[in-house]
Known about the structure:
This protein is of the alpha+beta class and 470 residues long. The chain has 15 helices and 20 strands. The strands form 6 sheets. Strands 11, 12, 13, 16, 17 and 18 form a 6-stranded antiparallel β-sheet that branches.
Amino acid sequence: MAGATAAATDTLDPAKQSNQTDYSRGSMIYNGLTSLDGSLTPQPALAESFTTQDAKTWVFTLRKGVVFHDGKALSPADVVFSILRHKDPATASKAKVLADQIETVRASGPNEVTMVLSAPNADLPVILGTFHFCIVKDGTTDFNAGIGTGPYKLKEFKPGVRSLMVRNEAYWKPGKPYLDEIEFVGIGDETARVNALLSGGMDLVASVNPRSVARVKSTPGYAIFTTQSGQYSDLIMRKDMGPGMSPDFAQAMKYLFDREQMKKTIALDYAVLGNDQPIDPTNRFHFKDLPQRSFDLDKAKFHLQKSGVTGKIPMVVSPAAMYSVEIALLLQQAGQRIGLDIDVKRMPADGYWSNHWLNSPVGFGNVNPRPSADTILTQFFKSDAAWNESRWKSAQFDQLLLASRAETDLPKRKQMYADMQTMIHNEAGIGIPLFLASIDGHSTKLKGLSPIPLGGLMGYSFAEHVWLDA
């Protein structure tokens, strides 16, 4: 199996993992208290149940009979240690910002852990089902042995080169995993990855470009696996500087997206239409009744003239933001038809995120799938969020966001999320034309893959689900 990244910084410490290769390896070795299914709904894992009265105090009942790879039984102390690690700045956890809301974690019984949050959050079981919150052994400081409760045991780990996993005979899920051994490597170059698959050297490879799909499909014995997800590249029009200071300019640009054409010619149909808000159709809180904004040159022209914006509009793009170059060129062509002069400025991928992404008046971002509606709205649209791309600020939105976290009544919560999606669609300086799919390639002998929209490779948790046909 080949992932798309490999580096000397590859790690087996769940708190420090940061790419698909780390996450895939982590889900072979470890489990979380919960796991996320195909609709990103949390399901019981190491916790056989979780309950709350007020979304602030949560009680987790641990599964009995679970043992670590070295034979030690799972206990509440392991859970307490694993969660509290993220709050310690010395750990340098990638999930510290998510763990900060957890005030206390304690063993409240021989088989029970209680967590108290600083404010109610109905999504806590979702957060605990994400990669970083895997459960490790109490007191672990050296993670190179890779001792977890997961479906595979670590046999060999060479960071940046490869890892070798063997079946955990004592795994707590009856009959799983199916495979005896997985050899896992990272191959950064997409062409080399596809070649490795089609030459028979690999059974599964991550991150295939849409332009390689025909080649994989036309080779006997090979197939592709598509995961539609919430990943998107977005046009950002800052509200605090440049033409985006006029709300009409932002509206004009949103009407210039020929989304159907972009889906067909740019993403080669490996995408679904976006509607200028960030909650995609795979998400259980997606607001499907929000009227779809369509390509409309008359409305674009009306709003452009009303905005009073004239002259050349520089638009910053880069291969780093997937498809941004191609999307900008289509916008440029459409703009010419209404008297708008868009100057497409191509920047190299190297340094794009640090130099240009949050600094350009008009440019592009790229957002990877997030595990919940709350996570994406908090990280990208809350008024004081570091990654608030268009600097759109709304006190009403911020209040709704906090209230929705605490709302345990699902229909009420759904309505709050619908209202927030509508506000972003109407007011934010963000255009989201498409939600992009992840594409993996595999041998037709490999069975058991089904999409989990956190990313490709079943949200990186493929290892315990797949098998090889004889």
